[in-house]
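Budget justification aside, the reviewers requested a transparent look at the raw inputs and outputs of the sequence design task funded under Objective 1. We therefore reproduce one unedited record. The lines immediately below are the structure tokens for a 281-residue chain.
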């Protein structure tokens, strides 16, 4: 008798159970358990102590700087990613492969190295250090340096979401619009932009999550000036090094809640638009 055809994913029940158990155990060990520990430590002395730590002046300054950094770097990278993806997916030009490589560069360079690059360029002994001092412009150990470092490490997220999406859509709709007399800018806003809006929003969410949680590059350029140049991750490190564990975990819990909010928005986007395909970074 001919052997019954088995689908590639039609595994025995015991194999499915084993795979699911391993996956859940791994997630519980490296993800759920650490997150639970963060919130447990934050509330170890009660909700009042956690709220007091978050409402501290230095903590509020760190929250404010984190939000300002994200509010500037995310729109910048969204605009860059949209333009870069449109150029790469819809046009042919010399240096196209080089542009793609440069967009991926922040994925290959350590964030600490990225911070050191900005110190080398804009620091006191850097290439433009003396000129900046002459014009009373401060970038390193100030908010501009933190924003620049964050822009660098989050640069690829929006572009890398949009490039494959635009390539898959092709150029037929744009060509049809142009043939009917639409200008290039009008074609972009009326045809291209609506087709990629979900991918753009998804890339923005990923970019925002990384911007708020960035530590390495920001740590190098910030100077760790309490109440001035400390973002939330840096403030958590300082509190932990001072053995102020409840305050450190309280701020870390707030950062986790922001990450969870981003995850909820990401899930909502995927539910609203099944065509949006997640990309792990």
């Amino acid at each position: 008798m001919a052997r019954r055809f088995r689908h590639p994913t039609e595994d025995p029940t015991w194999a499915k159970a084993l795979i699911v158990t391993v996956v859940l155990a791994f997630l519980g060990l490296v993800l759920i358990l650490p997150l639970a520990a963060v919130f447990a430590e934050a509330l170890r002395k009660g909700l009042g102590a956690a709220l007091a730590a978050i409402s501290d002046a230095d903590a509020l300054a760190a929250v404010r700087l984190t939000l300002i950094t994200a509010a500037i770097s995310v729109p910048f990278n969204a605009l860059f990613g949209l333009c870069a993806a449109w150029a790469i997916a819809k046009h042919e030009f010399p240096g196209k492969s080089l542009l793609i490589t440069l967009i991926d560069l922040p994925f290959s360079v350590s964030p600490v190295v990225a911070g050191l690059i900005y110190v080398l360029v804009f620091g006191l002994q850097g290439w433009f250090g003396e000129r900046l001092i002459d014009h009373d412009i401060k970038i390193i150990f100030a908010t501009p340096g933190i924003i620049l470092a964050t822009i660098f490490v989050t640069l690829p997220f929006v572009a890398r979401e949009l490039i494959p999406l635009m390539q898959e859509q092709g150029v037929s709709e744009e060509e049809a619009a142009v043939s009917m007399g639409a200008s290039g800018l009008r074609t972009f806003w009326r045809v291209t932009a609506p087709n990629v809006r979900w991918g753009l929003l998804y890339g923005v969410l990923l970019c925002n999550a990384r911007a708020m949680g960035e530590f390495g590059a920001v740590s190098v350029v910030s100077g760790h000036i309490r109440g001035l140049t400390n973002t939330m991750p840096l403030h958590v490190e300082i509190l932990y090094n001072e053995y102020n564990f409840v305050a450190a975990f309280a701020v870390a819990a707030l950062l986790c809640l922001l990450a969870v909010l981003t995850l909820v928005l990401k899930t909502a986007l995927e539910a609203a638009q099944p065509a949006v395909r997640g990309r792990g970074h």
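DSSP finds 14 helices and no strands in the chain. Confidence is low (pLDDT under 50) at residues 275-281. Computational costs for records of this kind are itemized in the attached budget.
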